[in-house]
Design goal:
This protein is of the alpha+beta class. The protein has one domain: Immunoglobulin-like. Helix content is 20%, strand content 50%. The protein has 3 helices and 11 strands, in the order αβββββββββαββα. The longest helix is centred in the N-terminal third of the chain and has 13 residues. The N terminus is likely disordered.
């Protein structure tokens, strides 16, 4: 019985948390709030991961949604367009990697979408459903509101959002 209780306590310590990374860099004078990766799409071959980023410097705040597309097939992903509710978003590709290994190795594309303050706050209330159009395939990814909400909470910028419902 004591052994089972000890195992349970150890396993609880290994569970992933929703904690974010909030850091300050003296050299750039930038506060950076970065959420944990959230898997927003998965099928037999492909995964889409999302994270939110808030950058603050001298009273200026920038909001981003970072996306990673992991493809298990022979060709890497090539994203052409990302939209939400029929409106195109300004997706900027950053890199293509030949191997990104989590449970097995994938070819990967990473990029980001710059969001306005209003769009980021709206996403913290309602989440976002992205339509992602690629050269080889399309994805529908649902970004949960908690990802945006927790970033705003860590950056002490919550007002006037509401806490998302548990999923």
């Amino acid at each position: 019985m004591i052994f089972r209780l000890a195992c349970l306590i150890l396993l609880m310590g290994c569970a992933p948390s929703d904690r974010l990374l909030r850091t300050y860099t003296d050299a750039t004078r930038v506060w950076q709030t970065v959420s944990r990766d959230a898997e927003v799409f998965r099928d037999r071959k492909d995964h889409v991961l999302a994270r939110t980023i808030i950058l603050e410097r001298d009273g200026q705040v920038r909001y981003y949604l970072s996306l990673s597309f992991l493809r298990g097939g022979p060709n890497g992903p090539r994203i052409r367009e990302v939209s939400a509710a029929g409106q195109p978003l300004a997706y900027v590709r950053h890199d293509r990697l030949k191997a990104y290994c989590i449970d097995h190795c994938h070819k990967t594309e990473t990029g980001q979408i710059a969001l306005t303050r209003a769009a980021f706050r709206q996403a913290a209330n309602d989440g976002v459903i992205l339509q992602i159009h690629g050269l080889r395939r399309n994805y529908d990814a649902q970004i949960p509101a908690r990802l945006f909400y927790s970033a705003l909470e860590a950056a002490n910028m919550l007002e006037p959002t509401r806490k998302p419902l548990p999923q």
